[in-house]
């Protein structure tokens, strides 16, 4: 038990260290104490396969940073064999070799275990003793177990700290907004609300009055920031600021802070408690779109705290040159405070492509990379290249690297100009097949970019957001207000609204659900039917918002059996009857299902008279077919929606849809993946829904290929047994048609 506790302590301490140098030193010191050895050393694999001595207890510190060539010595043997090496007399082993600076010849025994992550050896953990003895089975098992856990917490590039700060290097992140930007870093050191301590409140009544004034002040600041971006951008980004205003006016935030103050907490501490509570609720959600909303709450919390504390917001001088905003969470306020003519890039250590920072960067056309982790050695003025096309940041680029990216920027400008000319043109293939392109959205902030990029409607409107940011289930009137705005933005065009997809994987702050396997649990249509009063309220709000128009289409998520469709149709009929009795003019909308659960595929022919359309939810369908969570870093590398099994099932769905005469669409990441779009076109799918920023490029693709060629390629793809071969086939076809630039932008 003591060994288990010590192992847990070592791993936890390593995970919490904020610097690599501290982390690796902590590891070797802790292991030295845990198993009482003379030497403990951690080697880290470099890009060329050599092993760099990262930290040691017992050997000379002069050896830190030195490396053994690939395969050299007992350390190299451990790395190549991927198996522990435990010997009593190291010098007698034929592979024995050591770093002269380390002075390790005085230590006889050697026990080394590989540190493996995602199938690759990323390091070697070594213990040594002056006594010529084998490590016991218990000691070796401890090291093997520890190395397995350390592999999960060691950074991807653990030796960055040993690299000179001015050395050119690349750091991978997540694509936030496409394009490339060359400029100088400006570190956004905004205050951190989460660092606020608890403290007693001397005058609760005065603090509550101060809280109300703070809300009014920050609301005015948000409006001023929106105006600062310029009227020409107001339509594209105004809804992002409207979302902030909605949060500021939310009763849950206002009353929650009031209650915490009344309970004796000072204002900043009360604000921290409430913001943290709601942000953690979003962060626990598996749906990546909704999970990203926790960033909005943290941004807003920091902004409120900064306004309360009076901390100044510094901006760089004119001679700083082109700006790349860099920080853990670059806020919308940081962006709004910049001269848009100087802002060339955004880098966030944290965050995702679905954050409001990324949404705003897309609307402004500013390249952004998210989730890079802290950029070591970067300070104000550091030269950076932000490559939003592939999700990477290049630190201290050489003149030749800068020149290459400057040429790439020129090519991007030409491509953007060409794509802009297609905005009002139909997505028609070279042989006359018409494809409809819709936008996905879940926030009012996403609506304007969809319109600006030529969306013909909304293919998926996620209705969860009002439920997530409220302190209680939103009323019919509150939902009506939101749905009316969404439908009004696309007059005369289809809007597919998904009913509340909430459940075990998307817990509400005021309705927590705990399940061992939420992906297979109480969610989607199952949750809605079990809470039929909530569903009735939502359906009534949708019907009232649509009135007698034809825009509304209702989507049912996670359907797996006939009873679920029948039950919903009964609720819809009841809602229509209620509204008729209340003399509110409405019409029956079209109703369809999202094909996400594989069981639904076989039942589609039996549902022909129960549905008006079918929509494939490619993200969830792919995950369920492959039994892979694409958000789990341990298995995400194996996820690919161009997996042969996924493609065969999609082709099967398309064939069934034609057979039973139901319109078919597809939403999800496949709809914006150029290679996948060729396959989808070839299987006969003629409606695609995607993120707004992807619409122009996909339209260009569709207008550059014939449906007949796509059909031939789809049939060829269905004969292949692995994702790599399929992607190669489809991407080579795109390159042959002059669409290589589109692949590069992906």
Strand percent estimate: 15-25%
What summary fits the major beta sheet? 8 strands, mixed
Q: What value does the average pLDDT take? A: 83
Q: What is the 3D shape?
A: globular
Low-confidence stretches: 158-165
DSSP, total strands:
23
Q: In percent, how helical is the residue content?
A: 40-55%
The class by helix and strand makeup works out as alpha/beta
State the end-to-end distance.
50 Å
Radius of gyration: 29 Å
The strands making up the biggest β-sheet line up spatially as 7-14-13-9-10-11-12-8
Number of helices: 27
Structural features, described:
This protein is an alpha/beta fold and 746 residues long. 44% of the residues lie in helices and 16% in strands. It is built from 27 helices and 23 strands. Strands 7-14-13-9-10-11-12-8 form an eight-stranded mixed β-sheet. It has an eight-stranded parallel barrel with strand order 16-17-18-19-20-21-22-23, surrounded by four helices. Helix 23 (674-682) links the parallel strand 22 and strand 23. Helix 23 crosses helix 24. The longest helix has 25 residues, at 204-228. It is globular, with a radius of gyration of 29 Å.
Keywords for this entry:
23 strands, alpha/beta, 746 residues, 27 helices, 8-stranded mixed β-sheet
Question: Which SSEs are present, and which pair or pack?
Answer:
Layout: H1 2-16, H2 20-35, E1 39-45, E2 51-57, E3 67-68, H3 73-81, E4 85-87, E5 109-117, E6 120-129, H4 137-153, E7 169-172, E8 174-177, E9 180-187, H5 204-228, H6 234-248, H7 251-262, H8 267-283, H9 288-291, H10 293-309, E10 323-327, H11 332-336, E11 343-348, H12 356-364, E12 368-370, E13 383-387, E14 392-395, H13 399-420, E15 427-428, E16 434-441, H14 447-452, E17 458-462, H15 465-468, H16 476-489, E18 495-498, H17 524-530, H18 532-546, E19 552-556, H19 562-581, E20 590-595, H20 599-603, E21 613-617, H21 618-626, H22 644-660, E22 664-667, H23 674-682, E23 687-690, H24 695-702, H25 707-717, H26 723-736, H27 740-745
Parallel strand pairs: 9-10, 10-11, 11-12, 16-17, 16-23, 17-18, 18-19, 19-20, 20-21, 21-22, 22-23
Antiparallel strand pairs: 1-2, 1-6, 2-3, 4-5, 5-6, 7-14, 8-12, 9-13, 13-14, 15-16
């Amino acid at each position: 038990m003591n060994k288990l506790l010590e192992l847990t302590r070592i791993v936890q301490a390593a995970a919490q260290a904020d610097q690599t140098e501290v982390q690796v030193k902590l590891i070797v010191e802790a292991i030295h104490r845990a198993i009482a050895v003379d030497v403990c050393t951690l080697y880290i694999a470099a890009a060329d396969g050599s092993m760099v001595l990262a930290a040691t207890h017992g050997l000379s510190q002069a050896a830190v940073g030195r490396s053994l060539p690939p395969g050299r010595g007992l350390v190299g043997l451990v790395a190549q064999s991927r198996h522990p090496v435990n010997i009593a007399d190291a010098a007698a082993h034929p592979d024995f070799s050591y770093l002269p600076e380390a002075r390790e010849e005085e230590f006889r025994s050697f026990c080394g275990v590989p540190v493996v992550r995602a199938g690759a050896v990323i390091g070697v953990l070594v213990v040594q003793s002056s006594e010529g003895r084998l490590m016991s089975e218990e000691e070796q098992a401890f090291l093997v177990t520890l190395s397995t856990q350390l592999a999960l917490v060691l950074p991807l590039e653990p030796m960055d700290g040993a690299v000179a700060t001015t050395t050119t290097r690349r750091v991978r992140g997540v694509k936030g907004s496409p394009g490339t930007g060359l400029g100088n870093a400006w570190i956004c050191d905004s205050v951190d609300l989460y660092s606020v301590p608890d403290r007693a409140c001397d005058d609760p009544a005065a603090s509550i009055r101060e809280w109300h004034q703070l809300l009014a002040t920050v609301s005015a600041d948000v409006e001023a920031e929106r105006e600062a971006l310029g009227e020409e951008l107001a339509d594209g980004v105004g809804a992002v600021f409207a979302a902030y205003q909605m949060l500021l006016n939310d009763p849950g935030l206002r009353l929650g802070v009031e209650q915490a103050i009344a309970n004796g907490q000072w204002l900043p501490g009360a604000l921290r408690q409430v913001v943290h509570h709601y942000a953690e609720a979003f962060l626990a959600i598996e749906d990546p779109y909704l999970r990203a909303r926790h960033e909005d709450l943290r941004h807003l919390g920091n902004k409120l705290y900064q306004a309360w504390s009076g901390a100044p917001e510094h901006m760089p001088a004119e001679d700083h040159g082109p700006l790349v905003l860099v920080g853990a969470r670059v806020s919308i306020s940081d962006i709004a405070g910049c001269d848009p003519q100087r802002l060339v890039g955004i880098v966030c250590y944290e965050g995702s492509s679905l954050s409001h920072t990324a949404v705003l960067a897309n609307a402004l056309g500013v390249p952004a990379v998210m989730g890079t982790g802290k950029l070591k050695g970067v300070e104000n003025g550091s030269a950076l290249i932000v490559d939003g096309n592939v999700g990477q940041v290049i630190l201290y680029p050489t003149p030749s690297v800068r020149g290459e990216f400057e040429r790439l920027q020129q090519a991007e400008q030409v491509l953007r100009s060409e794509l802009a000319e297609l905005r009002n043109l139909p997505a028609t293939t070279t042989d006359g097949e018409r494809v409809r392109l819709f936008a996905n959205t879940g926030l009012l902030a996403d609506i304007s970019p969809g319109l600006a990029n030529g969306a013909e409607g909304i293919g998926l409107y996620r209705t969860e957001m009002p439920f997530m940011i409220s302190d209680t289930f939103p009323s019919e009137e509150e939902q009506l207000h939101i749905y009316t705005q969404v439908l009004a933005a696309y007059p005369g065009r289809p809007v597919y609204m998904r009913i509340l997809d909430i459940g075990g994987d998307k817990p509400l702050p005021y309705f927590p659900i705990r399940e061992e396997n939420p992906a297979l649990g109480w969610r989607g249509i199952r949750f809605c039917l079990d809470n039929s009063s909530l569903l009735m309220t939502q359906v009534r709000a949708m019907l009232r918002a649509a009135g007698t128009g034809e825009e509304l289409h209702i989507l049912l998520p996670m359907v797996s059996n006939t009873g679920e469709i029948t039950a919903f149709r009964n609720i819809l009929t009841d809602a229509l009857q209620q509204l008729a009795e209340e003399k509110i003019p409405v019409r029956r909308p079209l109703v369809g299902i999202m094909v996400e659960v594989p069981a639904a595929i076989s039942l589609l022919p039996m549902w022909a008279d129960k549905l008006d359309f079918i929509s494939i939810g490619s993200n969830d369908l792919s995950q369920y077919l492959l039994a892979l969570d694409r958000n789990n870093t341990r298995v995400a590398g194996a996820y690919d929606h161009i997996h042969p099994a996924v493609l065969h099932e999609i082709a099967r769905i398309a064939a069934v849809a034609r057979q039973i005469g139901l319109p078919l669409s597809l939403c999800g990441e496949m709809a914006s993946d150029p290679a996948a779009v060729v396959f989808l076109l070839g299987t006969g799918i003629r409606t695609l829904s995607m993120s707004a920023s992807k619409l122009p490029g996909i339209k260009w693709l569709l207008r550059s290929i014939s449906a007949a060629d796509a059909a031939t390629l789809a049939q060829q793809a269905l004969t292949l047994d692995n994702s790599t071969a399929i992607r190669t086939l489809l991407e080579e076809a795109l390159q042959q048609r002059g669409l290589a630039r589109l692949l590069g932008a992906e």
